[in-house]
# Entry
Amino acid sequence: MNKIAKKVQQAFETRFGSSPTHLIRAPGRVNLIGEHTDYSGGFVMPLALEQAHWIAARPREDQTVVLHSLDYDDSTKVNLTEPQLQLKGWQNYLNGVVWVLQEEKWPLSGWEGVMSGDVPQGAGLSSSAALETALIRAFAEFSGITWQPKIAAKLAQRAENEWVGVSCGIMDQLISACGVSGHALFIDCRKLDLQQVPLPEGLRIIILDTKTRRGLVDSHYNERHSQCKEASAILGKTMLRDATLSDLEAKAAEMEPLLYRRAKHVITENERVLQAVKAMRSDDHQLLGQLMQDSHISLRDDFEVSSSALDEMVECALTAPGCLGARMTGAGFGGCAVALVTAEKEEDFVNSIRECYFKKTSLQPNIISCTPADGASRYDPLAEM
# Structure
């Protein structure tokens, strides 16, 4: 059994005196390419991680949710018949999910549970989306609602946008709900079309956690979203997804340099995603790696969401054995980079990164070799996992 699943099950038995009836899992994600494009209706290509948020739970006979977080050593209780209150911390995600499900008129039933996760927080790997998706999956199970991953993702996004106050796109919630083992997903964020893209044989996707976190990321994120909306209005487009570089050049004189750079990133990043899908399907590893490098440069220079630690990590990766490409991933300002590495050089790559990054920053990175996993799922607590 997965160690986190075992931990929450044992903690549930200790806290509530008997076994849970459900184990719920929702994964984090890493995005190969397509950063800061989803809220402009663009293209992305993430994969779901084995690292996930787990909930061990059973139904209650009343309309109350009692939930304990092992990671925070803290508990909360929510009355499902009352309006929700804004809180701080992890409890606010539960309240936000309850609020959005109340808004959608779900016939909510009570449950009690214990939760924990191993998605690094604040690292750009979508720990909050994993939590929201796991909570919605739990409510679906206990309230008799058929699990529909795309609908669940949209509800989780709405909770993040309207309750938590982060103007994120749909990517994080969608990959957490819809991920497919062994595959990345090419996602059209406007149409919500999903295409499975198998990872090329002989390659490894390596997450490189800089171990740096930056506060106020949400405000920077919302600022970038507003800038993209402003740029699309100047271009006469509903979303930057519909703009081309020719459109941008034609309006360059009417646009502030900062807005020009923001729009340029989104337009070129969408094109890079389309090229990356073709490269993966044709096993053009060199092109895929180059596209990742170009993406990082654009995020650093045009969208301005990188950081010195991320830049140092990417530089270390690009000089390490077996690396074909690397870029920052996630919202930015700290957190993680992602690298494309030949399988035969994985150990040499990891050793090189540890030495190089420590030499540059005096920090020890957290390095994760990714295995693409399935999206949100329910398991039998007695089953082997």
